[in-house]
Structures are given as C-alpha cells and as structure tokens.
Amino acid sequence: MVKNAAYKIIIALIIISAAAVAARHFYLPDEKMPISVKNGETARSVSLKLKEKNLILSANLFLCWVKASGAASKIKAGYYEFSSKDGMFKILSELKNGSSSLVKFTVPEGSSIKQTAEIVAQKVFIDKDAFIKTAQDLKAEGYLMPETYYVDPTSTQEQIIALMQAEFDKKVTPEMRARAGEIGVSLQDVVIIASIVEKEAVNPKERPVIAAVFYNRLKKKIRLESCATVLYAMGVSKARLTLEDTKFDSPYNTYRHAGLPPGPICSPGIESIKAALYPANTGSLFFVSQGNGSHLFAADLQEHVQNKRITKKNIKRRQAASGDDKNNR
Prior knowledge:
Elements: H1 2-27, E1 32-37, H2 43-52, H3 59-68, E2 78-83, H4 87-97, E3 103-106, H5 113-121, H6 128-137, E4 148-151, H7 157-171, H8 174-182, H9 187-200, H10 207-219, H11 227-234, H12 270-277, E5 286-289, E6 295-298, H13 301-327
Antiparallel strand pairs: 1-2, 3-4, 5-6
Helix pairs in contact: 1-3, 2-3, 5-6, 9-10, 9-12, 10-12
C-alpha cells in the first residue's frame, strides 16, 4: 500500500509539473537567471532560491519531487544559470549533474592582498574580509601570482589562495630558485625586491635597472627610500609623497628604516621577479621619474640632483605645452 501511495504521488507530481511547464513555456520570458549552490546547502534552501527567482512554480512541489526521486543528497555545489522555461525536471537534472559554469577574474601585476580580495569577491561567493585575513595569516602577500583564473564561483577563499600560490610555484621555476642562491639572496628577498620594482617601474625595460639600484643601495647600506613602500605602509595611493609622508611610522617605510621592508608590498608579475633575479649590470644608486613613464638614473648624488633639475624643467615644459594645446582648442 505504501509503495502504491508513493507511486501515485510521483505520477501526480509529474502530471502537475508537466502541465505547469507547458503553461510557463508560452508565457514566461526565456531570461537566464544565476543561481549559486554552496557546499552542504540543503535541498530546501535550493528550492527556496529557485522560487525566489521565479524559476519554479512552487518550492514545496520542487522539494517533494527532489525527495521522491531520491535526489536530496545528490545536488552538487556550483554556479548555474536557469530559465523559467526550463522546468523543475531539467533544473533538477542539471543540479545533480553539477555545474560546468566557471567565472573568470584577472589579478593585475602589483595587486596587494586587499586589492586581490576586491577583485575576487566580485566574481566568487567569498567574504572579502575573510579572504584578506586568511591570506595575511598565510603570509601570502607577494605570492598570489597575478594571472587570469577560471574558477567555480562557490570556491572558498582557501581554495582561491591555494590556486594562486600554486600558480606562483609553477611560474617560479626550480632554475629561478637556484638563481636566487647563485646571487646569494633568499627567495623571500627576491620577491620583496620584485614587489618594489613592480610598483616603481612603468617602462618594462627599466625593471632590471631599478632592481640593480636597490641591490646597489643595499650593498652600500644606503636606505632604499622607495615611495612605493611608504604608500603601502600608509594604505593610500597618490602621485607624490610629501615630506611628512616620508616620516610615517612603519617598518615598511624605507625612508626611515634601512634594508628591505619586512615583506613584499604586492604580488609582483613574473617579469619583475626575473628582474630581481637578473638585475642590470650598472652602478646606479638613484633614479628619478620623468613623469612620462621613464626614469633618469645616476651613480652619485651630484648627478642625481642634476637629473632632478632636468626632470623638473621637462615636466614644467610638458605642462605648459599641454596648457597651450587646451587654449588653442
């Protein structure tokens, strides 16, 4: 008797659902709606999500069908897109098969943990603050390799961080790690220098030269005086530092503290890491931005002061020319 009753319920559900799907097919829009199913989420929760987006006729009817078909424990986590015209049979079938939908996010070179969290949280169902805390606890600053990733949007922050660290391990080859030993620098220090180079260099060709400047200053026990390290310490972004900024109290402030900062200030791209491993053969100790993406380099303070004067004049000349251009429009 029990089996017959269950059989009749299933038949009734099929008839009702088929009729509902047929009616909905003609009157509802064919717009795809996103649905995310998290690991361990209950069938009831999923049914309510589907109903909330008007993808099914009834949450209770869908839940009855899930239970009657023995699919309650077979729904897979993932990111799905359904139409109101799909009907609960197709929807449940796809939920059991699992999502093949992946989302794409790109982390640019020079991104900090906080910036990376912002990017990831726009595409993946993670808590931004939890991502930051997890990455900081793992000391992952500098090791979240900038790249384009395709992931399941229900991935956890631990999974995303592990994926990005694995990409770092893949790109930083055994030969590159051996090279760090050859030049007498730890991999950690290579990444720290590369992170500063990443933030200071605009012209890719200048990366090895800028890296050489920092190595030369370290050897001569001259403070690095990198603006990028101060900005990281302050947690701000600006074109130029003030004199007051250079006094900011932080171990990352290389105007106040000798040697390298305690850790990387961003995740450098592979080219900046290569520059830190293969610095240019130069005696330069200083560089100054020309305001156009390039720098002037100097081997001593006198030349550096001269370069700063040249740069200041050139910037003023470009600004004046730009003003003339605007007035003539």
